[in-house]
């Protein structure tokens, strides 16, 4: 019995010893879709090339509900968040009609600083928001959201779960435009493009940076009422980490504005369709822009 | 971000009662259909492999391999075949329910006391009678235990059906997770846990009812 107790104690000590070992490196994480698998590597490769800091990528950790507490606990140090998600899901605030992307950015920056002691660095450049997509084979005469309204009663709408919960999500969009979709389904964001391509659903709210819009021959309708505010994607870091690694902030901010929407969707397509490794795609991108040496 | 949980939770349940109800109905439909199909497949198969014991390892092995595939990956694999929606979800859930039912049926039947079977044969029972009047009643506790395990498992795994567009209580859980609304997560998770326990209880009653008098403890 005594032996068993000692064994157990040793195991606990060993395990707790392990988890304290991460203090010397920067842990970068991300969410569970394509863009979020690539972005951690872009940050990591760039930091590695321009500092002596040790960096570890733990990608695909989960949704904002997992990443934010993980940041608070210090399990991860940094990931790329979207201003819209930060505003609504984390700070539980709403975007005002007509509020610009910059104004929203300023708001989340302050909110995070106050509530979590987390710093929003400069946005990476591309704006990511929703557009409505359907297969071009459908041969509908629609260029804008409003054009789609008359067709909507015979259409099934499919979207990832969070779209139905957001303040700027399904209910509000349907109300703003007067859509009357016959049905609505929810599923994982990664399968929604296949679902619309294969005709399981008729319309999806696609991410504007997704490479599959172009490759699967889907439309990207114009949000003619400006319903979805454009959201920035920016790296967010714990203040403690910035204190511990003083060069980090300036180095990561050098990436600001360097990734355009076209570049992001091309990278996404390389991973989703050409089946390249996210890390490889991230390196290629940085090299082609001359941001790191070959 | 600590909120007085109980108040918010009650509020969430009230405002979402429609969603919760719909999720429960879908959840029930998915799990029940899957378990029903699994029983139709695994019970006869269990009886069959108890007669052909050389094949037992093979069939149980196959169902074990399926069980080891991570459920989310399995749902993903089925999409190219069945598309999104109910069929994919029910297929995956059925496959996950096979192992406990098959293994318990097999184990139950082969552990029936040979002496009892011999006695039956001595009384002039046919093979069919031996199966229905001796082997199945005597192995019933095993078989029911398998079905109960499968039920609890399936009700749990069915929360993942929402990833492929099949709805269920997982819908609320995942909506809550992706917008950091823990009350909504609980509004899906608690009914799911309740469903699992409830069915386990019902099946236990059925098992007691169906157990032959001679097997019940005095």
What would your notes on this structure say?
The complex is a heterodimer of chains A (294) and B (218). Chain A is an alpha/beta fold and 294 residues long. Chain A has two domains: 2-127 and 231-288, Periplasmic binding protein-like II (D-Maltodextrin-Binding Protein, domain 2, 3-Layer(aba) Sandwich); 130-215, D-Maltodextrin-Binding Protein, domain 2 (3-Layer(aba) Sandwich), CATH 3.40.190. Chain A is built from 14 helices and ten strands. In chain A, the strands form four sheets. In chain A, strands 3, 4, 5 and 10 form a four-stranded antiparallel sheet that branches. A two-stranded parallel sheet of chain A has the order 1-2. In chain A, strands 6-9 form a two-stranded antiparallel sheet. Chain B is mainly alpha-helical and 218 residues long. Chain B has a single domain (22-211), classed as Orthogonal Bundle (MetI-like fold). Helices cover 81% and strands 0% of the residues of chain B. Chain B is built from nine helices and no strands. In chain B, α2 (17-51) packs across α9 and α5 (86-110) crosses α7. Classes of the chains: A alpha/beta (294), B mainly alpha (218). The A-B interface holds A 62-66, 68, 88-90, 115, 158, 160-162, 164-166, 185-188, 191, 194-195, 198, 200-201 and B 1, 76, 79, 83-85, 162-165, 167, 171, 174-182, 184-185.
